[in-house]
Specification:
Elements (H helix, E strand, L loop, with lengths): L11 E6 L13 E6 L3 H10 L6 E4 L5 E3 L4 E7 L7 E5 L2 E5 L4 H10 L2 E2 L11 H6 L3 E2 L2 E2 L4 E7 L5 E5 L17 E8 L1 E2 L2 H18 L5 E2 L12 H7 L6 E2 L2 E3 L7 E3 L5 H19 L8 E3 L28
Parallel strand pairs: 2-5, 3-5, 4-19
Antiparallel strand pairs: 1-2, 6-7, 7-13, 8-14, 9-10, 11-12, 11-13, 15-18, 16-17, 17-18
């Protein structure tokens, strides 16, 4: 793609944009284009006039994401300050931009005396990402508080979708592919600011004690299978501390993978696949990735550059990330 083939924008459009600094793993190749829209209409106009064959991916804080070393062959949309506002619209309801962080949402809820959103303090992403993935932790999930969300479809159409239309299951929604979540309405319950803060402090301390938060990681790697905890299955398969290249299974929490320094995305993904293989061999349980993997493998023929490692189900190379 050249600038001549791209729609005119009012925001910022960057060619061959490095994504590694924008994701928690600090690895991966560039995007053909990085688009930071000025507002919702700018995003809608851009998508409406963009060649429908061009892949589009929304990027939030860059957690829960592996960008493969061959980069992303399309446009990555990153929502900036215009999409990061959070406002109380009544005594128990917040209106949140798609680029707002979980920390901002939970803190605004606390200040407004709205309980039930404390768990968002522990989700290292933005509203757009955890709405798409039904993000959750510490006993709460987005489906418990979401009323509706605003999206811009790949066609450029702006639409408001109620909770019932999202088809939420564990860490999954049925949002249309290529849709970008630009806002959400959350509803909690009345609470006392001091009690809300105490719960947020408890969650923060628990995360600090149990997770490798100061490492280059991607958050929880695998979904918890029915009746099991992913970390325990990984540990019982003997994978604690196991390494592939510069990537390592965390010693502190075995459902976290770490870039110990100069790991490639291929190292990280290969490590995850080997962990899946060892867990299946040990327990018979097939772990499913929670981390999103997007883009192209480096150094492979063009028709082989997209998809999973050999032996695993094929996947598309586009997605929406936290």
């Amino acid at each position: 793609m050249t600038t001549a083939t791209l729609p005119t924008v009012r925001g910022k459009l960057t060619a061959n944009a490095s994504l590694a600094p924008l994701v928690w793993f600090k690895s991966g190749g560039p995007a053909d284009w990085l688009f930071e829209p000025k507002d919702a209409d700018d995003l809608a106009d851009f998508l409406r006039n963009l060649d429908p064959a061009v892949p589009v991916m929304a990027l939030g804080l860059g957690s829960n994401l592996i960008v493969r070393d061959g980069g992303f062959p399309g446009v990555v949309v990153r929502l900036g300050k215009a999409f990061a506002k959070v406002d109380a619209i009544d005594a128990i309801t917040l209106r949140c931009g798609g680029g707002a962080s979980g920390i901002l949402v939970s803190s605004t809820a606390r200040d407004a005396g709205i309980a039930g959103m404390e768990f968002l303090r522990s989700i290292p992403g933005t509203v757009g990402g955890f709405v798409r993935m039904n993000g959750g932790a510490y006993g709460g999930e987005v489906k418990d508080i979401l009323i509706e969300c605003d999206v811009v479809l790949r066609s450029g159409e702006q639409r408001t979708l109620p909770l019932a239309n999202l088809g939420y299951t564990y860490r999954h929604s049925e949002l249309p592919e290529g849709a970008v979540v630009i806002g959400a309405t959350f509803r909690g319950k009345p609470g006392e600011a001091a009690a809300i803060q105490a719960e947020m402090d408890r969650i923060s301390a628990s995360r600090e004690a149990s997770q490798p938060l100061r490492s280059k990681t991607g958050g929880s790697t695998f979904k918890n299978p029915d009746g099991h905890k992913a970390w325990q299955l990984v540990d019982e398969a003997g994978c604690r501390g196991f390494m592939v290249g510069g990537a390592q299974v965390s010693e502190k929490h075995t459902n976290f993978l770490i870039n110990t320094g100069e790991a490639t995305s291929a190292d990280i993904e290969a490590l995850g696949e080997e962990v899946r293989r060892r867990v299946k061999a040990k327990s018979g349980v097939e772990l499913q990735w929670e981390i999103q993997r997007v883009g192209m493998f480096a150094g492979a023929p063009e028709d082989k550059r997209v998809g999973m490692f050999a032996g695993a189900p094929e996947e598309k190379h586009v997605g929406v990330a936290k």
